[in-house]
Design brief:
mainly alpha, Myosin motor domain-containing protein, three-stranded antiparallel sheet, Alpha-Beta Plaits, elongated, actin filament binding, single chain
């Protein structure tokens, strides 16, 4: 994995991808030749081992591995503009909803015009200021970046079990590569070496004071109460730390505490049920006699 790519993505490559139509007499081959000449020595650029494909494709090393791009149709697709004839047919539709959609025909053009410092791409055979697919992609991507910067997103990390999306098929190598690219192995290692369980003093005491047979004295302050409670369970001092407001535990220390608490709660619940059922039976017999 290219660590440089995580901190500094190959923006120069992406910039050239979105400015390909500015090349005079641009073509797919000329575009690819410019890429090879400009980025052949870049660590994130892959020209390819097969010389027969040097005129057809190139690769970029992303954080999740190398991605190969075929350049066929790159320049022509970028010259595509909004189809005025298509919108004309839609405007004459008998369906009111389809007619309303034509209102958004110039929406991208207005967005491009309002963008500061960015001029709309001008392509051969198109009218001045007409937004192209490249313009659409660029400004949609910028809008996405603006939304991400203005919010606090949470991501769900998904693992693909196989490339065919087939059931009951688990590709171990593919899954392992994805775990490496996501950094999950490093995260697991860091969590094992650190103190991933953080609990405020009051929460810790309220949850685990049932484990102390002598019961904690109310004269203890919160920090001392936590210290006495952990010490009574025989937990080594190297496996926990006391902070200003929280206690920090390792995972393999927290799990036994939870097991002991569950056993204690279960046994006490059974005892309470036993006593209540006995009382209910005796009271029922007494009422039947009376």
């Amino acid at each position: 994995m290219c660590l440089e790519l995580i901190e500094k993505p190959p923006r120069c490559v992406l910039k050239l991808l979105t400015e390909q139509c500015h090349m005079p007499k641009g073509s797919d081959l000329a575009y690819l030749t410019n890429l090879h000449a400009e980025f052949e020595n870049h660590p994130c650029y892959v020209k390819g081992d097969d010389r027969r494909k040097w005129e057809k494709e190139f690769g970029v090393k992303h954080y999740a591995g190398c991605v190969t791009y075929a350049v066929e149709g790159f320049v022509d697709k970028n010259r595509d503009v909004q189809q005025d004839v298509f919108f004309d047919f839609m405007s004459r539709s008998t369906n009111e909803f389809v007619q309303e959609i034509t209102v958004y025909q110039d929406l991208l053009g207005c967005t491009v015009a309002r963008a500061s410092g960015n001029a709309t791409t001008m392509s051969r055979g198109t009218s001045k200021g007409k937004p192209t697919l490249c313009d659409s992609f660029r400004h949609q991507l910028q809008a996405l970046v603006d939304v991400l910067q203005a919010t606090t997103p949470w991501y769900a990390r998904c693992i693909k079990p196989n490339m065919q999306k087939a059931a009951n098929n688990y590709d171990e190598k593919l899954v392992l590569d994805q775990l490496k690219y996501l950094g999950m192995l490093d995260i697991i290692r860091i969590r094992k070496e650190g103190f991933p369980i953080h609990m405020p003093f009051l929460d810790f005491i309220a949850r685990y004071r049932c484990l102390d047979k002598a019961r904690l004295s109310r004269s203890y302050n919160e920090k001392e109460a936590v210290r006495c409670l952990i010490s009574s369970q025989g937990v080594p001092e190297t496996e926990w730390q006391i902070g200003k407001t929280k206690v920090f535990l390792r995972s393999y220390v927290h799990e036994p505490l939870e097991d002991c608490r569950n056993q204690m709660v279960t046994s006490n619940a059974i005892m309470i049920q036993k006593i209540w059922r006995g009382y209910a039976v005796r009271r029922g017999e007494l009422l039947s006699i009376l």
